[in-house]
Amino acid sequence: MNATNKVLVVGASGGIGGEVARQLRDAGWQVRGLKRQLGAPVVHKDGIEWRDGDAMNAADVAKAAAGCCVIVHAVNPPGYRRWGELVLPMLDNTIAAARANRATIVLPGTVYNYGPDAFPLISEDAPQQPRTRKGAIRVDMERRLEAAAASGEARVIIVRAGDFFGPSAGNSWFAQGMVKPGQPVKLVNLPGPGVGHQFAYLPDVAQTMLRLLARRDALPAFARYHMQGHWDADGSQLAQSVQRVVAQQGGGKPAIKPFPWWMIRLASPLVATLRELLEMRYLWREPVRMDNARLVAVLGEEPHTPLDVAVKNTLVGMGCLPAAAA
Q: Where's the NAD-dependent epimerase/dehydratase domain (predicted)?
């Protein structure tokens, strides 16, 4: 196994990729980030070595990954568009680079792999029968990773978590559907009122990955773990936390209203992102929860930031509260 402390984060300019990159850097890793149109072959900034390159270009990924013992695959197509064309080729490039370096691949996973037959409490080994196109692609991604691990040339750690929120989670339900970024919070929309839902605070997800990486030699070659994150038992507890945090900062008490799904349905024929939201609505219509027993058995506990603290930091990062509130 590659025993260096060099890591490549593919997608380091995104939400989860950026959070993992920063925490790895702070933990003493030599971190590389891959970014398109960087303006120079290599740029050193904030303790991270940025490499110019495209995740769709196998040579770019291979060059950036040279000498790395870990590759964090946290890249998504811009705007989450063209999934069917881009997602699997990008992953194949990461797998090829990991095999060349006998490296460990870390993948942030989702609940999209699963259909209603696996609900309401999902274990890592539950049957994966997705209902959506994105879910089918996620299943294919994990199959390819499992094959790479079975070859003995790479190892894999998958961490599945709920809907992300956090200071840098721009492309998330919280930042795009529940609260408006960049302005004081006056309204919180509930996508699934009355229905239990699982959320994951990005810094907790990144910390979980770091702790698993510290134990990677003792883990199975193809290791999958579920996070419990923040369980919103009735679909309103996250919104109530927003109310408390905003009120504590003198911003009054925001209103809570059901998410306007009818508007999404009307506009979806014209906007690809809205069609994607509608496709995922089944996850808001019944309780969906992941069982973290396997993770706790390995780590002893799951990293967990108290909800109001996590919400406050998220709102500050979104520009909805002054930075002094953090």
A: 7-220
